[in-house]
Amino acid sequence: MTNEVASNIDTNDHGEPHGDNISGRLNWLRAGVLGANDGIVSTAGIVIGVAGATASSTVLITAGVAGLAAGAMSMAVGEYVSVSTQRDTEKALLIKERRELEETPEEELEELTGIYQAKGIPRALAEEVAHHLTAHDALGAHAEAELGIDPDNLTSPTHAAFASFIAFTLGSLLPLLAITLPPLSWRIPVTVISVVLALGGTGLLAARLGSAPVGRSLWRNVIGGLVAMAVTYAIGTPVGRTLWLNPPHLENQEPQSPSPDVVAGAAPLPFRGRPGTAR
């Protein structure tokens, strides 16, 4: 096959993801899908559990909005801290690799040659490839081969945190609206159906973007959401009945005797003496 023919071949004919930004794409995908799934499942679990305890729309909205705000901030902060730690580790490894290239270039070249040999490339060709790549971009070649890191495409904690925050918020809005807008008798069925469809959609999206099997991703999302809602509803219902029968504000209260003023102002009791006896 000549170079001219090879250059005309579309590298994407097999549907494989190619490009320098695949790690960044996967990072956004992970943060976005994880945030949306968490928003749907956690908020649905909250409102379904509260709905099992009370029919008050005010309580449902308050619990749902509080869960949305807390969950979105928690996801964003957690994602930022996690990815920042990963980025700091990558930077430290790159600094070490750069120092080794400056201090022991021959050893690093031999190490890169050995990596390509281990992949099945003959010794002579592996040396030639290592020399060419080192001359072109020493740090990039060695970091990618030895560490699996692209120095020009480090993960961004800000992007990951923002994607998680937005995704969680959008995911939370669906069960929150589904539990508050329908009539009382339709709240839970509408919420369950909406959550199942939404989780199916996020599972399908994750499978398509990640080139993964659709069925496994879809059912994993749906079953997980159903289990979460069932557990919270099963907990919320008996808790709500217990609090309804024994309201917390009435517990541990001493019986109150009537005040002296009430006793003094009460009507006199009727005279119950013997017949014919004067009062």
What general form does the structure show? elongated
**Number of DSSP strand runs:** 0
Distance between the termini: 130 Å
Largest sheet: none
Counted by DSSP, the helix tally is 9
Low-confidence stretches: 1-15
Structural description of this entry:
The chain has 279 residues and is an all-alpha fold. Helices cover 74% and strands 0% of the residues. It has helices spanning 3-7, 22-53, 57-103, 105-118, 123-147, 157-180, 187-209, 214-245, 260-264. Helix 2 packs antiparallel against helix 3 (57-103). 27% of the residues are buried.
Summarize this structure briefly:
The chain is an all-alpha fold and 279 residues long. The protein has helices at 3-7, 22-53, 57-103, 105-118, 123-147, 157-180, 187-209, 214-245, 260-264.
Topology:
Elements (H helix, E strand, L loop, with lengths): L2 H5 L14 H32 L3 H47 L1 H14 L4 H25 L9 H24 L6 H23 L4 H32 L14 H5 L15
Helix pairs in contact: 2-3, 2-6, 2-7, 2-8, 3-4, 3-5, 3-6, 4-5, 6-7, 7-8
Short descriptors:
279 residues
